[in-house]
Amino acid sequence: MTTIARNLQAVRSRIDRAAAACGRSASEIALLAVSKSFPASHIQEAHAAGQRLFGESYAQEAVKKITALRDADIEWHFIGPVQSNKTAALAAHCQWVHSVERTKIAERLSAARPETLPPLNVCIQVNVSAEATKSGVAAGQELALAARIRDLPRLNLRGLMTIPEPTTDAALQRKRFAALRALKERLMRDGHDLDTLSMGMSDDFEAAIAEGATIVRVGTAIFGARETLRA
Ligand SMILES: *Cc1c(COP(=O)(O)O)cnc(C)c1O
Fold first, then answer.
1. What pLDDT does residue 130 have?
2. How many CB atoms lie within 10 A of CB 144?
3. Among candidate residues 56, 47, 38, the one with its CA nearest the CA of residue 94
C-alpha cells in the first residue's frame, strides 16, 4: 500500500470516529482531498485508492491538472481566492467553487458557466474569526450575497465555507465552526435551500464534524507537508 493510500485510510478512520462520537453518520461527510502544490501523479495515486473529490487553490494549477486528468471520474472543487480574470476557466473546469466572496465574482462565474454543464455549485466563504488578513465576507454579509446568488441562473448556492484561524484550542475551534453553522441556519430560515458546510482541515476537522461539517478539506494529512512557498 502506498503512503497516500495509507494516509487516506487513516483520515477516513478519523472521520468515522469523529462522526460516531457525535452520533452522525460518516456517510454525510464528504472528504475533499486538497492536492494543491502536488503533481497530478499524487492525485492519480489517491484516485487509485478510491478518492474522487479533489480540491485546488490556484486557478492555473487547477486547470492544468484538471485537463491532464480529464478522463478520470473526479469531482473538482476550487477552494482558493477567485480572481476575476480566472472566472471563465474555473466555471468551465470545476464542479464546485467554495470561495465566493464578492457579487462581481458570482456574476462572472454564472455568466461564464457553459450551457452544456449543470449550474456551478458554490459556497459563500465567511471569515468567522474576523482576521484582517483572511478572505471571506464578514459574518452578516453573506445574507446580501446569498440573495444575489439566488438570482443568478447558472449558480447553485449549496452552503457556506470557512477557514478559521489556526488554533490548538479545541473549544475555540468548535466556537468558530458553530458560528458558521448558525449563519447557514439563518440563511435557511430566510428560504435558502442549503445542504453544505465546508469546514475543517487536517488539524481541526474533528471539531468541524462535531459542528455539522458536510465537506472536510484535507491536504497535509493525505499528501504530506507542502513547500513553504505555497503552504
Ligand atoms: C490548503 C487548504 C486546505 C488543506 O489544509 P491542510 O491543513 O493541509 O489540510 C483546506 N482548505 C483550504 C481553503 C486550503 O487552501
1. 84
2. 11
3. 56
Query: How confident is the model at residue 16, as a pLDDT?
Result: 98
Sorted by sequence, the CB contacts under 8 Å of residue 187 that are 6+ apart come out as: 142, 143, 146, 160, 194
CA distance 181 to 185: 6
Q: Is 161 in the pocket of ligand 1 (CB under 6 A)?
A: no
Give the angle subtended at the CA of 97 by the CAs of 175 and 194, to the nearest 5°. 55
Q: Amino acid letter at 57? A: S
Amino acid letter at 31? L
How far is 79 from 128, CA to CA, in rounded Å?
16
Atom of ligand 1 nearest to the CA of 36: 1
- pLDDT, tens digit (0-9, with 9 covering 90-100), for 172-193: 999 999 999 999 999 999 999 9
Helices 40-48 and 3-21: crossing angle, nearest 10°? 60
Is the CB of residue 201 below 6 angstroms from any atom belonging to ligand 1?
yes
Rg (the chain; Cα; Å) = 17
